[in-house]
Specification:
With 113 residues, the protein is an all-beta fold. The chain has no helices and ten strands. Strand 5 and strand 6 form a beta hairpin.
Length: 113
């Protein structure tokens, strides 16, 4: 059973950057992977997606600011987040889009002045 461990979150000011990492304990080479986020009182939403070959898609609210990437040799997916806004505050998770993998604990991102 693959396990996912997210890291890299923290408290930053608006306009600053963070880089999140998601390490999988098993192979995710053939998986479409996504970064999701869940803000307090809101449903979890998919914000970025990367295909096994590296094709990416983003929700409109993060386009131009977030970049998803992957290192298949390390079974790791990254999310570079620039120009962070208070509305980006949430717990961020990664997971496969089309295969059931247990959710990790996520990593908290807080954007506040």
């Amino acid at each position: 059973q693959v396990q996912l461990v997210e890291s890299g979150g923290g408290l930053v000011q608006p306009g600053e950057s963070l880089r999140l990492s998601c390490a999988a304990s098993g192979s995710i080479v053939n998986d479409d992977m996504g970064w999701y986020r869940q803000a307090p009182g809101k449903q979890r939403e998919l914000v970025a997606h990367i295909s096994p070959r590296g094709t990416t898609n983003y929700v409109d609210s993060v386009k131009g600011r977030f970049t998803i990437s992957r290192d298949n040799a390390r079974n790791t997916v990254y999310l570079q987040m620039n120009s962070l806004k208070p509305e980006d505050t949430a717990v961020y998770y990664c997971n496969a889009l089309f295969r059931q993998i247990s959710w990790g604990e996520g990593t908290q991102v807080t954007v506040s002045s």
